[in-house]
Amino acid sequence: MRLIDGKKIAADIRVSLRHEISQLVGRKPHLALVIVGDHPASLSYIRGKKNACLEIGLLSSVIELPTEIAEKSLLEKIDELNKNPLIDGILVQMPLPKHIREYKVTAAIAPEKDVDGFHPLNIGKLLLGEEGGFIPCTPKGIFVLLQTMQIPVQGKHVVIVGRSNIVGKPLAALLVQKKTGCNATVTLAHSQSAHLEKLTRSADILVAAMGSPLFIRQEMIKPGSAIIDVGINRTKEGKLVGDVDFEHVAPLAEWITPVPGGVGPMTIAMLMQNTLEGYKKTLKRPS
Ligand code: NDP
Hints:
Helices cover 40% and strands 15% of the residues. It is built from 10 helices and 11 strands.
């Protein structure tokens, strides 16, 4: 079994980003982090992203807005950031309060500053296999992990359990592309999939993105396969665990990501990479 050390791979990416950013002449890339309300998990995610910016030399601004803010006022704030030439990337921390429509918010962010890659135009570009859009951070991070570990993807059966718009669907769209490092046969499973175990056992690469602690057991995997655990779950004891029963699955797998230290750090590293890309796009735009 080979451990996929996402923490180390992400740290290496951050080092090279820091180097690239230190070479930039003039202003540095600037990421706007918008948070609505004071949910502890969201605050902690924002802190993590802000610290990552600091570490690699990116500028960041945290815009804290009250839970009861009207959708219209949030959209106006986003528009202000869209028009600000000194802001290269905009991230709105999800989830949002119930009275705000997430779709409206993601669609309001200028596509060229949409570093999360959730804008319909960026999702559309990904689906069409067009270059130049932003790829959502978690799927992109998984792709980089597979490439770095030289895990064969072409012609392989990738089974993704979880069809969310932020992980499962964009990852399926990415790995199925007719491009080097992709060309996979992808099955996208979910809570209504029949014979889930039969599907997961046929996976050369199994991606668990359910948010269901330790759901993937030893008998659900194909021996010698690659296991990518996206899940982040906190047990009653406060321990972080993934969607995969690591202890029993790891001895059978050829490659496996740990939780924590697998996909999570890659998501943040890809956010930093996307922000640098956003900066390059901003510079190319006529003012
Ligand atoms: P969502 O809740 O949006 O989606 C979960 C998906 O899993 C749904 O498609 C759901 O099916 C499916 N699912 C749930 N239970 C089962 C089951 N028993 N059998 C089959 N399918 C099931 O979650 P997210 O995609 O937002 O997140 C998934 C997990 O990944 C969470 O733990 C989250 O914290 C973590 N995460 C980690 C990131 C990282 O950087 N490491 C980034 C983003 C998320 P259905 O659609 O039918 O309801």
